[in-house]
Amino acid sequence: MKLSIVAPVYNEEAVITDFHYNLLMPAISTLKGTKSYEVVYVNDGSSDKSLEILQQLTQHDKHIKVVSLSRNFGKELALTAGIAEATGDAILTIDTDGQQPPRYIQQFVDRWLAGADVVVGVRDHYQKHGLVARLGSSLFYFLINILGAKTVPGSTDFRLISKEVQAEFLKLTEHRRITRGIIDWLGFKQDHLYFTYENRLAGKPSYNFKKLFGLAINSFISMSPTPLYIFGWLGCAITLLSGLFGLFILIEQFAMSDPMGLNFTGATCLGIFTAFLIGLVLISQAITALYISHIHTESLGRPLYVVDKKNSRNLK
Ligand code: UDP
Ligand code: MG
Fold it and tell me: Fewer CB atoms near the end CB (10 Å): N or C, the chain?
């Protein structure tokens, strides 16, 4: 049994050595249940000394591989590059800043040995995050679960996948990807491991609010077209209500000469008519959205289904 550790690195010169020797290696050297290992560091176009430090690490240890990307592609693609390079029976992805503590690796491995194909690390508390971050993250999980994802709040990309899941993962070619979203989509037997999120060893996080917001938008869009439909339903409601109200005015005021004495003005009629038209525009937009969402699904080019070969029998 071989374990691959995949760790993305972007401008982490302040932490790599500490992470590697003081956190990762102690965890790996005491690991039970695996025979060999490799560490795949992915340099995601760092502009500091990260790459040199990583290359130096490989001189002392043949277990270490370095994949160096030509520029900064973002963590999601850096992870993908690392997963593609991994040759283990199980692949564990982990941040290099120490926030996802390597001391949990044994537990990930144990869950995998017990039969899980995917072991998802879940943050068990948010104390160390600010109020805005906590609210934002709660809102994100609330919305994404409404949209139909089955994501446990606090799920991270500190996770282990089996090589079967790796093989299926690598078949997916979409560009704007959220690695953990894809892994969730693939299915297989998932297990959740709660861990305590640590403070950064040193350095600064490179994900700021703007990047996180973009990531959240990407997740929503790749998840489902529901946000587009919401406006369609709004349009239906507006059209229906203003249509009924307009009809009422027509009958009450014009056909029956205002028996209730309501005295609708021209401005009211105009307002109702405008609302009716706005409703129609929203509906027609939603219909366009339907077509776009079909094109979107097709263009992702995901496989129609994924077969779990391990649990299937006597296939051709
Ligand atoms: N990272 C990366 N490419 C990027 C940004 C970040 O490979 O463009 C790596 C980074 O080196 C770290 C991990 O992704 O190992 C998490 O990044 P960070 O700590 O900045 O974000 P957090 O998720 O902790 O807010
Ligand atoms: Mg971090």
Answer: C
Q: Which residue has the higher pLDDT, 143 or 56?
A: 56
Give the residue carrying structure tokens 């979107």: 296
Residue 93 backbone phi and psi in degrees, to 5: -100, 140
Q: How far apart are CA 161 and CA 180, in angstroms?
A: 11
The best mutation among 5, 6, 9, 10 to test binding of ligand 1, ranked by most ligand atoms within 8 Å of the C-beta, falls on 10
pLDDT tens-place string over residues 20-50: 999 999 999 998 888 899 999 999 999 999 9
Which class is domain 2-223?
alpha beta
**Alpha carbon of 199 to ligand 2 centroid (Å):** 8
What does the angle CA 5 – CA 31 – CA 89 come to, to the nearest 5 degrees? 45
200 Cα: distance to centroid of ligand 2 (angstroms): 6
To the nearest 10°, the Cα dihedral for 197, 201, 204, 209? 0
Q: Which two tokens stand for residue 143?
A: 């919305």
Q: What is the pTM of this model?
A: 0.76
